[in-house]
Amino acid sequence: EAAALVLVAVLWGSTGPFLRTGAAGLEEVRCQGRLQQLLAEIRFLGLNYKYMVPFLLNQGGSLLFYLSLASADLSLAVPLCNSLALIFTLVTGRILGEDFGGKRAVAGMLLTVLGVTLCVAGVNETQRE
Known about the structure:
Mean pLDDT: 87
Helix content: over 70%
Low-confidence stretches: none
Membrane topology: Multi-pass membrane protein
Structural class: mainly alpha
Number of helices: 5
Family: Belongs to the TMEM234 family.
Protein name: Transmembrane protein 234
Distance between the termini: 22 Å
Number of domains: 1
Pfam families: TMEM234 (PF10639)
Order of helices and strands: HHHHH
Organism: Athene cunicularia (Burrowing owl)
Shape: globular
């Protein structure tokens, strides 16, 4: 159960930066009319393997999360996945050379993860009693 949730966090967190990289150039797709513009953008992304591979992995993580909720405690699964996904997003983004706004932004993310960890620990402790 915990391994599945960690895998969900890895899939969600590590694919975000790749999705941003894969979507590069989307803003340059131009067509007349809203519907044609929408279809052109969908075609651009759908035929772009640099976007579709991370997208499918991300959606696989969502499916795994859905299946894991049958046996996982929701009050633990959601914060755990979100906190770990944030860490994996930060690490993957740094590896790809993304700028996260400096040390203050990273410190804010880490404090958020710490806060969620303390909340999860509190929920877990309450359930034991």
